[in-house]
Amino acid sequence: AFLKDFNGILVTDGYEVYHQLARLRRGEITIAGCWVHMIRKFKDALKGLGKSGRKTVAGSIAQEAVDRIEVIFDLDNKLNTVTEETRLKVRKEKIAPKVNEFFDWIKERRKDVTLKSLTGKAITYCINQEAYLRVFLQYGDVPMENNTAERAIRPFCIGKKNWIMSDTIHGAQASAIIYSIVETAKANNLKPYEYMKYLLEEMPKHMDNNSKDMTFID
């Protein structure tokens, strides 16, 4: 419902509901995968294996996967200050070959691990997400990851414990509205407090007594 009027590119994790939405609205919504979520799978595999496990075949594959992905990230991060046109050109010329090499390599190594292992699951996730993870190569303004969105929702996730007694639908809607306004203000380099104060002072001036668009919060 939230995305019913949206047309464009969504940068997301591997949550299947986003992919279903894109299939239902083919041509209107494109899903770009997040490489941070993907590399995290291999890092988690390394943590699960421990120091001794890193010397195994599964450990060496997970480590090499991390190393290869970090090279791709490093190349793309160097393009942060260039124009979208230049970024797209470099992505096609220098980064796309590295991405091709990575997926060719990871598919070849799949047979060397147990698919139920952490490394095997990371490889399966990676291969299943390949089409979405390649989308950034087609555009100059699409990032490799959705860290911006994750940072934006972190304050809300942390704050959940502070309003455990706010258990009404209207309360949840009010919280979502306020946090959306605050994060939008921050994304546009505005000072949230001053912006909220301005809204609360100005909104009543543009509404009549019969308006149903104002939500009052007790």
Would you kindly provide a brief summary of this structure?
With 218 residues, the chain is mainly alpha-helical. It is 61% helix and 5% strand. The chain has helices at residues 16-24, 35-53, 57-77, 84-109, 118-128, 130-133, 147-159, 169-187, 192-202; strands spanning 8-12, 29-33.
Question: What this model shows, in words?
Answer:
Helix content is 61%, strand content 5%. The chain has 218 residues and is mainly alpha-helical. Strands 1-2 form a two-stranded parallel sheet. Strand 1 (8-12), helix 1 and strand 2 (29-33) form a beta-alpha-beta unit. The two termini are 27 Å apart. The mean pLDDT is 89.
Strand/helix succession: EHEHHHHHHHH
Spatial sequence of strands, sheet with the most strands? 1-2
Secondary structural class: mainly alpha
What is the helix content?
A: 55-70%
Salient structural properties:
9 helices; 218 residues; mainly alpha
What does the secondary structure layout of this molecule look like, with pairings?
Blueprint: E1 8-12, H1 16-24, E2 29-33, H2 35-53, H3 57-77, H4 84-109, H5 118-128, H6 130-133, H7 147-159, H8 169-187, H9 192-202
Parallel strand pairs: 1-2
Helix pairs in contact: 2-3, 2-5, 3-4, 3-5, 8-9
